[in-house]
Amino acid sequence: MLITVKTLTYYLSEHPSIINFQWSYNQSWGSTWSFLFTSVTLYLTLSIFLHLLLALLLRRGRPVSLGLIPAIHSLSMTVISATIFAGILLSAAAEIRETRWFWRRNKTTPLRWLLCFPMGTRPSGRVFFWSYVFYLSRFVHMWRTFFTILRRRKLVFFQLFYNSVLTFMSFLWLEFSQSFQVLAILFTTLVYAVVYGYRFWTGIGLPGACFPLVINCQMVLLGCNLVCHVGVLRFHFMKGGGCNGIGAWLFNSVLNAAILLPFLKFYVKMVLEKRKNNIGFIENQNQDAKFTKKIKEK
Questions:
Q1: How buried is 84 (Cβ within 10 angstroms: 0-12 exposed, 13-18 middle, 19+ buried)?
Q2: pLDDT tens-digit readout, 121-152
Q3: What's 28's DSSP letter?
Q4: Which of 42, 46, 137, 247 has its CA at 20 to 30 Å from residue 161's CA atom?
Q5: Spatial distance between the Cα atoms of 86 and 163, rounded to a whole number of angstroms
Q6: Considering the entire predicted model, what is its pTM?
Q7: Residue 287 pLDDT > 70, yes or no?
Q8: How many CB atoms lie within 10 A of CB 240?
Q9: What pLDDT, on a 0 to 100 scale, did the predictor assign at position 286?
Q10: Pure H helices in 107-156
């Protein structure tokens, strides 16, 4: 067991490819702005084209059977997310351990480093390697949109917007060495591991939860991100020279707000409808009980 843990630690945080990683146009695939815009545009175009093509070829509302393909995709995303989570957790711990002596001179704490990279931080090393893997995983995540279009015959514009925004955000994390990305990736991959694991569970025919697990997990993720954004602002305006990549962080904050508002509206609407249905169910039960009581009295 000890050998296994040491081996995993080596391949997740101590491998030379991880330690010597550098985000650059020459060494990192997909690291150019042209690639980012082209890939996101292609994703949006293919999604709309597939939706229109199915509307022309198939009867309205008729789904396309995909078998176990969505379940296999969910299992793959579960493994990828869990690997990224473990990798960046071990890498962050290693970075904290190796640079603590320097932080004492600058009065920096691990929490401050997690939320606020020092000015002049370059996108290289362990945590940025896993940030790069997370960026690449966004393109694997996009395949779920095509499954939704094929199975449900729906083009969900919020899903298109959400995936496009998160791809842009993960690119900005690397391009500008943006603060807060370590915690953001930890929270996101942990939630993804749970959500996609649950989707795999239900995708192979096993019973689902008695409450909307996916929606609640996403709500927890957005809440954690909101709290951390407040922490970034606090550290940026404290003494210490500010946080690296604050301009990109501000742009990301706007994108996060654009995601949070419609999702919060949907979540509140869902909760109110569920409460309304529960009240209606209770009222029907009460009426049935009164009716039964009258029958017995007669």
A1: buried
A2: 899 999 999 999 999 999 999 999 999 888 88
A3: S
A4: 247
A5: 23
A6: 0.85
A7: no
A8: 15
A9: 47
A10: 110-115, 126-141, 143-152
